[in-house]
Amino acid sequence: MANAAIYFHTDGYDTSGKRLLGRHSAGESFLRGFLRHADVDRFDFWNVGARPTEELDALIARIEPPARPVRWIPQRNRNDLADPGVLYIPTPDLPAEAWLRHMVGVRYALCGVTHTTATRVVMKIVGDLLVAPVDGHDALICTSNAVRAAVDAQLGMMREYLGREYGARRRPEPQRVTIPLGVNAADFQVSAEHRQAWRERLGIPPDAIVALYVGRFNIKAKMNPALMAMALERAAVASGRPIHWVNSGWAETEAAGEIFHRETAKLCPSVTYHQVDGRQADVRFTIWSVADFFISFSDNIQETFGLTPVEAMAAGLPSVVSDWDGYKDTVRDGVDGFRVPTLAPRPNMGGDLGYLYANAWLAYDNYVGAVAQFTAVDLRAAEAAIVALVNDADLRRRMGEQAQMRAREVFDWSAIVPQYQALWAEQAARLAALAEPSQTRVNPYAPDPFTLFAGYPSRHLAHGDLVALRPGMSEAAAGARFGSALANYSRVNPPRPEELTAVIAHLAAHGVTPVSVLRDLFPPPRRNFVERALVWLARHDVVEITARG
Fold this sequence. Notes:
alpha/beta; Rossmann fold; 3 domains; seven-stranded parallel β-sheet; 22 helices; 44% helix; 14% strand; elongated
């Protein structure tokens, strides 16, 4: 099957840091699943952070020891992406890479994936999909039908604007393909041993009913726990049975965590409240054993898929979740658990929020938090769902079994990775069908500085200009000058020492020489570098350059 080079930066896959975000968990999960299930002869990783490969090998081995050879593509070797021919980027930022590909003229397709799409940066990225040189052989994976609808809605707005101002786009648009995030279902196996250990650690009786929430403790940028707390309180009162609620996650600061837990517990006095630091791997994969059902009322536009309900399904837990974004695609209402109806204002009722956010008068957390303030869940339906699970052990068992089966058959990476590879195969076929070869082109967002600022100098070096060695200048004297700190700063792609030696030797032997002749002393790939270096030599008084005639 088709392969792709994986755009690899440690920040996209390492979950061992203090700040654990959903994209970190998703990245680590994808990498483990890809290493386990990809049908490839070798794994290609592009070392975009220019980290020591030993460090990267150790990270990969910690996540999942690869069973096939690993090829590390150096940071600056974009040409090596032509084989395998597709580059997978763990973000939606196809435009940035498309412009860079445009500059170097290498043939490879791009495949990105959505995570949070509510930031100003990502909104700009989505709009730029119709401006940048992305093409029909490129693809953006949308992790849920809801986020695909949001991406298509924004593209529709951008398409209408561009069509009105400039006419229709001639280049084919990139594909949008809905493929869910996956889990490694086997990592979420529950056990009686872990159940007993967690319940003893938290002081929960063996026969108590336990609801579990897993996620960040952030009322603005994740979800407001008040909705879950009020639903659990109503259910505890209605059922007359004790309910324990375990919250496993982490807050940005200790103070924020204290407010989160204190205020949440106030809303459910009939529920026994527990908090757990969920960042450690031994917690992330064992905490599921403590629970009888999972609860998560996402209310926030920062969410696009939501991994934790699928992780709960893999653990064999029924879920009570909000009918929101990607949760719509995962939990089947009445089968794997319950999806609680949600309510939001009708379209065109939030222009003020968009305007404030566009002006940066609302920070991201406050923007998504403000939008979430107008999301309601049906607390009556939530109460009924929770009571049903609390009172019926057989229902919990049946729904948990259905959830676990669905997680293994639909959301395990063994089922998702082949979908990625099928997409990459289609992208490679579309790329191969192009008649026009790739070629280097101007990137107007990153132009050649000598073109952009061409009006700055008095004149430009020409091939007919004459170059002469300064009187008394020798290779040794030139070398001493080059070694100065005043000559060595900011040297990017400098001339090679042997090239400088060759230029000086030629001028010493032949005298005044045209630029074109000096260029021809070197192979074609180096001629522009040498020509540019002549100005550097003149700058440091090694040579003199005069205009012919």
